[in-house]
Structures are given as C-alpha cells and as structure tokens.
Amino acid sequence: MTSPRVLIPLPIQDSEQRRFSLGKNYVNHLIAAGGLPILLPTTANALDDWRALYVYADGVMLTGGGDVDPSLFGEEAHPATYGIDRQRDEMEIALARWALQDDKPLFAICRGIQVMNVALGGSLIQDLPTQWAGALPHSGSQHGLERHEAAHSISVEPGTRLAHVLGAAHVQVNSFHHQAINRLAEGLRIAARAADGVIEAVEFPNKRYYLGVQWHPEDMAAQRADMMRLFSAFVAACRA
Ligand code: MN
Predict the structure, then answer these.
(1) Are 139 and 177 in contact, with CB atoms under 8 Å apart?
(2) Which of 92, 157, 203, 218 is catalytic?
(3) Which pTM value belongs to this model?
C-alpha cells in the first residue's frame, strides 16, 4: 500500500521573490506521519491542472504565509496587511472548497485556517494588535519567542475532533500571526479560543478531517506528542 498523497501549494514567499519556499517542518512531519507530500507551485495557473492534481491527492494541506487579499472578504486593506499573493489565494480557496465538497481531508495551518474561513464565506480581523482590544501577544517573533515555544494557551471545545486528537481541555501553543478569523463561515465550528477570545481552531463537523489551527503545530511536533497527533490523525483520515 502506498502512502497517502497530500497536495501542498508551494508559494514564493522570500523577500526577493526569487525562490519557492515552504517550511521543511510541514513536509517532514507529514512524512513522519506516513504521508507523501506533493508540492504544487502556486504559479501554475490553470484551474484544470490544480483540479487534476487535487483529484490525484488523498488530502490537502494549507500552510502559513502572508495575508489573504482582504478584497476576497469585501474589505479594504489595513495598513498592516502584507504579503498578498492573489494567485496563491485563488489556488488555496479552490482547494478548500473542493475538499469540503468531496469530504477529502484538509489540514489548514496558520494562514491556512484563514484561507479556509474566507473560502467558505467568512472574514478576517486584519490586524489583531490594532483591531482587537486586549489581544494577547500572538506575534511570538516580536516577543523574542522561538518557533517551538508556547506563547499562550488555548481552551479546546469539548466534543470536537480537535479535543479528541489533543486529549486536553487547555493546551499551550506557539503563535506567529497578526490576523485571525472574524466572522465565522457558515458551517464551521469553533474548536478552540485563546483567553482573549481570538479563534485559534475551527473544524467542519461530520467530515473525515476538515480542521484548521491558528498556531504552528509543525514547529512544536518534535517536542510535543499532542502536536504530532494532529499530523498522524490527518494522515490516518487520508488513508481511510
Ligand atoms: Mn495565537
């Protein structure tokens, strides 16, 4: 039996826009969990080609990066909004919609949870520090935290898929985001929040695995078995 194939969009996101780049921890932990990554450059621009590779894949992973174009949820850009890549947005939104329609497993991380919510009709808080009163320090790098270090805790909703996978009601997570879900898309369920009310995880109920997290489990999974289980449960769903 071959490993489940997981499609991951591969963006250009270096400062000089010269190289494709994707954190290796996404890929390595997916492989460690038994999955086979298929990296598709976001500059491939034919919807039919994305669709063909999507059909070939057993699951989809959406990763971190710059902000989603706010015009996709009907807003002007906030001054702090950065790194917009419309091509990537369109590819990832299509993948998120297809995966929901087909009940193909989708694991969405950081920017990925934001893409998921916009793809299904929701909106984003464009800049937590200036638009969310009492916001916790969600931008860990500005507070000197390493990628694997916890920045804040989350409260996990009982009875959710996330609660089942993590196995705890309160969990410490890292945090490298300045945006978050604002208006929740219809059908999505909140699976975790930070103490300041920021949505940290969502899922679509009664799907094989349709889960988004606002933190970066790929950077904690080497030290944390609960974070690794997010990858292994995802790959198990892709295999099923
Ligand atoms: Mn956070």
Answers:
(1) yes
(2) 218
(3) 0.97
